[in-house]
Amino acid sequence: MKPRLWRRANRVNSLGLAPLYLRITLNKERAEVETSHWVSEKEWDAHGQAVRGNSERAGHINKQLAASKREAWEHHDALTAQAKLDSSIRVTATAIKRLLTQGQAPEALTLLALSTQWLEHCTSPAHGRTRSTIRTFGTRHNELARWLASPGMRKTTLLACETRPRHAADYETYLLTRGNDPTTVRRYIAWVRQSMSYGVLRDYLPHNPLTDYKAAPGAPKPPPVAVPDQELCVLWQAQFTTTALAQAIDAWLFCCETGLSWADYRQFDAAKHLHEEGGIYWIRMVRQKMRRRKPEGFSTPLTAQAATLLARYRHKLPQVGNCSGNKAFKLVARQLGLM
User: 164-185 pLDDT, tens per residue?
Assistant: First the structure.
């Protein structure tokens, strides 16, 4: 047997960390066990099979990694001894992996406990999740716990291995009756499906019975409604009694002309995000909601109307808060008959 530790470089997170795995090779068969430790490329010494440095963290990780390899050898020796007495017992890499993980995956693992483990995995600091994302994951887990403890269910002891598509269907019905929209329901169902897949990954479950389960789609989204040209002309030509109203409408018109969201508008800085190429000005920036998924950002041309607004404010657009902006938009729409 050859137990070897390796860093899975194709799963690097936003912090530059990747998980460590214990790879067991025996008779040309290979099995891998995740160690739950994440390290950077500079920290990992592949030749020495250890984390570099003398820090407390490095010592703690190296101690646990050595214990994992030692435990693998103990299971190998125990299986070998049993195989000599019972010919039906086979000493394989998969069997050793199962013994390494069985202490983490009792047969009586409930669906709620599995969801808890999946939540702990997803919210681990190694993944670099934002606070809002962590809160979202916690909400999905708590909703599952609430359903399992509801009077109509009362199955907090529902085992993960006994969870079936009918349970997912019951959960979907429960979510809809609580007033959740179809998109939210699909996300909650996906959380349960992902928890089950995590159980399969950790060898807690033989397979995921919810792999093909999909929540019922909701009504198709209506096409986006564009602001009529005549209403835009009214806004462009309107004269406002206060500077606050004028600035709020100018900010809104700039978003219309450039396609920027309100959050992106508030981050816009002409000195930083405005670029000229071949006599054409371009806005180049990263969307606030896509910083992690699309860090390369986007480009949009600066229209003549948007350039007029920039010149009006000498390339420093007014900052309008959400609350004051919403009040101004409603007031102007009501006074100009645009509602």
Answer: 999 999 999 999 999 998 989 9
